[in-house]
Amino acid sequence: ESEGKVLCTELYHQGKLPYRIFKEDLEYAKRIHPSVIQGYHLWAKPLVQKMRESEKVTTFLAPFIKSWAYHMAYKTGVEKKRNITGQILEFIGIPICFFIGGVILKRKVYNNG
Predict the structure, then answer these.
(1) How far does the chain reach from its first CA to its final CA, in angstroms?
(2) pLDDT of amino acid 83
(3) Torsion angle, CA of 106/89/46/26, rounded to 10 degrees?
(4) Model confidence over 72-82: pLDDT tens digits?
(5) Long-range pairs for 26-32 at CB < 8 Å and ≥24 separation?
(6) What is the CA radius of gyration of the chain?
(7) Under 8 Å CB-to-CB from 63, ≥6 apart: which residues?
(8) What is the pLDDT confidence band of residue 113, given thresholds at 50, 70 and 90?
């Protein structure tokens, strides 16, 4: 996956996310804290596998993934229209992924080594 992106990359590869939005999503990903990326990868990588196996899973997830990507494109200034669903996903998702990556995964590594 490019620059820590997983779900958006898969949606782009499936032809369901425009390149101009995908490109901005990748650009914004460079600003995301590494602990957030680690936490995100823990749950997103298995979801990509499910997306590859099932069109139904992709169809269900696509609106959420697109909302995130369009919100990131808004934050980079490319999209002029705000995406409220994407904003909500960011507001909820970043802290959750940070917690998973920064607390749970680090504790797991610390306890195992």
Answers:
(1) 27
(2) 96
(3) -90
(4) 999 999 999 99
(5) 26/2, 27/72, 27/76, 28/72, 28/73, 28/75, 28/76, 29/2, 29/3, 29/4, 29/5, 29/72, 30/3, 32/4, 32/94
(6) 14
(7) 85
(8) low
Question: Can you give the pTM of this predicted structure?
Answer: 0.86
Residue 6 phi, psi dihedral angles, 5° rounding? -130, -65
**Is residue 103 within 8 Å of residue 45, measured between CB atoms?**
no
To 10 degrees, what angle do helices 55-75 and 84-99 make? 100
CA 65, CA 13: separation in Å to the nearest integer? Answer: 13
Q: Residue 74 in contact with residue 86, Cβ under 8 Å?
A: yes
Tell me if 67 sits within 8 A of 42, measured CB to CB. no
Distance CA 101, CA 39 (A): 4
* Residue 3 in this model has a pLDDT that exceeds 50: no
For residues 104 and 83, what is the distance between their CA atoms, to the nearest angstrom? Answer: 30
